[in-house]
Amino acid sequence: MEHYNAVVIGSGPAGHTCAVRLAQLGARVAVIERDYVGGICTNWGCTPSKSMIESAKIARVVRESARYGVNVSSFSVDFKAVAQRRDEVIRTSRLEVMERLQHHNVDVFQGEAHVITPGQVQIRRGKLDLDGAIMHYTGRTEDLSADHIVLATGSVPALPDFVKPNDPFVVSSNRLITIGELPGRLTIVGGGVIGLEFATIFSNLGSQVTVIEFRDHVLNGMDHEISRAIVDEMTATGVRILASHRVFSVAAGMVYVEDMERQEALEIPADAILIATGRAPVIQKSMFDKLGIAYDQRGIGVDDYLRTSVPGVWAIGDATGKSILAHVGMQQGIVAAENIMEAPGTPLRKMDYSVIPAVVYSIPEIVGVGAIPADLAGVEVFKVPFKANLRAHIEAYDSGFIKIWVKSDRVVAAQAIGHNVSEIMQELANMIALNTPLADVARIIHAHPTYSEITRSALEYALGRAVDFVPEPVP
């Protein structure tokens, strides 16, 4: 039986990051993966969706090129070519993950893992086919012993009760992101991050898209002004967004909906129906019960150091239920690895969830970081429109705005909607995490003209010295 310092079950962002960090710290590491290396993010999530969003952006730019003085008489979207590019990006990203693991001498086993005891893992060996993540098991098993076991088993799309899993019109985000033909009519159930990103992709590539949201606004948890702004942007480009609508049945390509405000019934036909109502952690109940690993419907129970209730067993990533964001899982992987390799008696590193940037890769993008205080006493809100930013004006991306919430001379939260706002938010995230006074960053020279200047504009505004725009009252 091969022995390892740590066996990591799952090779998604959390799993492969943890494995690499363990190896850097001197551990002998094995990774067990039952699907493609790279997990959900590489194969069915971040990588393919952002690849297709890039194609959607190009389609939008070409469609609107006349505003730059470039006249394109006609153009078309070759969806098969879009899908081919997406698939090549996936393959390249998957190969890069594998090469990184190999570079750090991490052993990778293809198959399904079963934890026999806290120190022993059995692998049901298998092999993936070439066309999809379908495991063909060889009938051979192999046991590994380990000082530590890390559960990084990820999550799966959650299906509500009104959906039949075998309905041919219903697609999960995993399936929709790998299709080879453009659906004429796409109906999306759920107006959260996943729903709006898919609406962005397919509406700009040529599908007629309808988004159905149970709540009275999309993007629950974001500022309502940002929610209204993205609805206006998407509606202007042909997306139909139905808020305060409840889906009560899906059958034969028809979505049956109730308008909860008017108490009217609607029937929405679709060629494809995406259920984007969330994801569920992968929980292996019988195995966890046998081992005594605590869990609930939200995920595997872990403490601040990523330890489960069983000594020597750790959990990271989506499976913990803490977050489904890849960057959170990656940080969990690093923290768990460093704690596993820490010398006995040395204080362990806590996982900090207090400052997590979150991005919606819509057109335009949306980003938020920090928590808006429930008690707004002593909190001031400052808003700067993108039209105040010269780079945005030059490039004709001047719709949108940034908002910051300030208390005691510190930024406590920030949200923005606008072109590439994901690339300007980290400065504010760092300020929140480090509890940095406004003036310490505002006094730093920001290059001109750049989108990052809008951060300085917001900070200067909060300090009472807006010099590059005329402030408007914040509602």
Strand order of the largest sheet: 1-2-3-4-5
Q: Return the structural class.
A: alpha/beta
What CATH first level of the largest domain would be assigned? Alpha Beta
* Count of discrete domains: 3
Task: Explain what this protein looks like in three dimensions.
The chain starts with a strand and ends in a 13-residue tail after the last helix. With 475 residues, it is an alpha/beta fold. The protein folds into three domains: 216 residues, 3-Layer(bba) Sandwich (FAD/NAD(P)-binding domain); 117 residues, FAD/NAD(P)-binding domain (3-Layer(bba) Sandwich); 99 residues, Enolase-like, domain 1 (2-Layer Sandwich), CATH 3.30.390.30. It is 30% helix and 28% strand. The model has no long low-confidence stretch (mean pLDDT 94). Helix 1 runs parallel beside helix 9, helix 3 packs antiparallel against helix 4 and helix 3 crosses helix 6.
